[in-house]
Design a protein that fits this description.
By secondary structure, the protein is α+β, with helices and mostly antiparallel strands. The chain has one domain (25-341): (Glycosyl)asparaginase (Glutamine Phosphoribosylpyrophosphate, subunit 1, domain 1), CATH 3.60.20.30. The chain is built from eleven helices and 13 strands. The strands form two sheets. An eight-stranded mixed sheet has the order 4-3-2-6-5-1-11-12. A five-stranded mixed sheet has the order 7-8-9-10-13. Helix 4 packs antiparallel against helix 5 (125-135). Bound molecules: glycine. Glycine binds at residues 202-203, 221, 223-224, 233-235, 254-257.
Length: 343
């Protein structure tokens, strides 16, 4: 439920803030109520049903009192290396020229972030993104520059185009219809597919809070199948595919990246949580912005947001049915939840 009390308080805060002398620092009282680090209660959540296996790897880090940043990196390595996963990393469907190009970003509890886009030949783009964050003064490297950097950092050059993905691309080439597919039907993919879940194949976005109450996030994808060479979606864009504010919470997205970028979706979700929205309501509002701006487009596409706040509360919302997310904490390590949706 949308928290009306917080909004009433916020209006009062806005009024009080207007009385401030320029330069005076003032902190909103409602935020003390809202921002409560939840120590010793680690949690990791991630998009889609492949999030179950990814969460399990992240949990190994979290349950051993590891850092959320390490957890999300280790977690998303699982789908990145999964040959059966055709929308992330190795085995991902190529662009229309037959090239597998990967997008990924990562963000830590200090607001540090790193990103790579249109990266080829590297199995774990998320780890290259982390190196960009930790070893360069930059946030984002793209294309050949990202590859060159990865190789310099010791990453191994790998052929990411599997025989299965190549076969699917060659099949697509017969018509070569330029209609990028975002939710690719692949009935055999998931061991834990929810009933009625026909949209379970896209970006993995992962958010974690460690035992110290610190937050981090990661997002990684091979992007739209058969996209134009050079097309970059939301996943490596900080604020679009992922955003983490350690005082408030984190958010990540999946689906048609262009609509997420246009609305700076993940940043929006975090800012809504700052205003007092619970995670699911924040995700819903971000989805509604997309629908309101382009109602006809929205009927045909999927976008989903997933959010975790500083209290350890989580929620999700999508345009279309079929969005699932995985939750892992002390109580249960393999919860799969059907996200609510507009349609
Ligand atoms: N959300 C993945 C993409 O649009 O590339």
């Amino acid at each position: 439920m949308f928290n009306r009390r917080k909004f009433i308080t916020q209006s009062a805060v806005a009024g009080a803030a207007a009385l401030l002398v320029p330069g005076e620092v003032w902190s909103a009282p409602f935020q003390e109520d809202h921002i409560q680090p939840l120590e010793n209660n680690p949690i990791v959540i991630s998009t889609w049903d492949f999030g179950i296996a990814a969460n399990a790897a992240a949990w190994e880090v979290l349950r051993n009192n590891g850092r959320a940043l390490d957890a999300v990196e280790k977690g998303v390595h699982v789908p990145e290396a999964d040959v059966k996963n055709q929308s992330v990393g190795y085995g991902g469907l190529p662009d229309r020229d037959g090239k597998v190009t990967l997008d990924a970003c990562i963000m830590d509890e200090f607001g540090n972030c790193g990103s790579v886009a249109a990266l080829q030949h590297i199995m774990h783009p998320i780890s290259v993104a982390r190196k960009v964050m930790e070893k360069t003064p930059h946030v984002m490297l793209v294309g050949d520059g990202a590859l060159q950097f990865a190789l310099e950092q010791g990453f191994k050059r790998t052929n990411l185009l599997t025989a299965e993905a190549e076969k699917a691309w060659k099949e697509w080439l017969k018509k070569a219809e330029y209609k990028p597919v975002i939710n690719i039907e692949n009935k055999n993919f998931s061991p834990r597919k929810l009933p009625g879940n026909e949209y379970n194949h896209d970006t993995i976005g992962m958010l974690a809070m460690d035992a110290k109450g610190n937050l981090s996030g990661a997002c990684t994808t091979s992007g739209m199948a058969y996209k134009m060479h050079g097309r970059v979606g939301d996943s490596p864009i900080i604020g679009a595919g992922l955003y983490v504010d350690n005082e408030i919470g984190g958010a990540t997205s999946t689906g048609v990246g262009e609509e997420v970028i246009r609305n700076v979706g993940s940043f929006l979700v975090v800012e809504l949580m700052r205003q007092g929205y619970p995670p699911e309501e924040a995700c819903k509002e971000a989805v509604m912005r997309i629908i309101k701006k382009k109602p006809e487009t929205a009927k045909e596409i999927q976008v989903g947001f997933l959010a975790l706040n500083k209290k350890g509360q989580y929620g999700a919302y999508a345009i279309q049915k079929g969005f699932s997310f995985a939750v892992c904490n002390k109580e249960s390590q393999d919860t799969l939840i059907k996200g609510k949706s507009y349609y």
